[in-house]
Design brief:
Blueprint: E1 2-10, H1 28-40, E2 47-48, E3 58-67, H2 73-83, E4 88-96, E5 115-117, E6 130-132, H3 138-146, E7 152-153, E8 168-169
Helix pairs in contact: 1-2
Amino acid sequence: MARYRLILEYDGRGYCGWQHQSGDRLTVQSDLEQALKCLCGHEIRVHGAGRTDSGVHALAQVAHFDTHREIPIAIYMRSLNALTSQALSVRQVELVADDFHARFDATYREYMYRLLNRPGPTALDRFRVWHIFHPLDRPAMGEALSILVGKHDFSSFRASTCQANSPSYGLF
């Protein structure tokens, strides 16, 4: 059995998030697993580094899967990109050690929220930014943000099974 790591990019507008949903709802995980079943000839479970909600995009989501089917890396890449939705791009496929786990070996997660502050909307980024047409009070925003600088205890927001080493996070 071989384990492969994937680096994925996707436009989340057409997906109901990362994880399987009841019914025939399209998710990133189900899209990949359907393509891998077609390619490898058996059921494959894809594990992601994290889950995204419906409509959320990803630039470099890490995932992994196991298979006994030996196929060249280049074939995996081309085939997965041909068999999945056009909203999903497999940017990289790599053979990794059997003990690699996309979720538990993740060293960090980064999230980006984009605001567009101008009178007119954007045509090119309309699904990727929050358009705020009125002027923002930047000094007030800076003052409000200053209370977030430093370490803070986010224990009340963690699941009891959270794998993070510490409940302390923050801006530095």
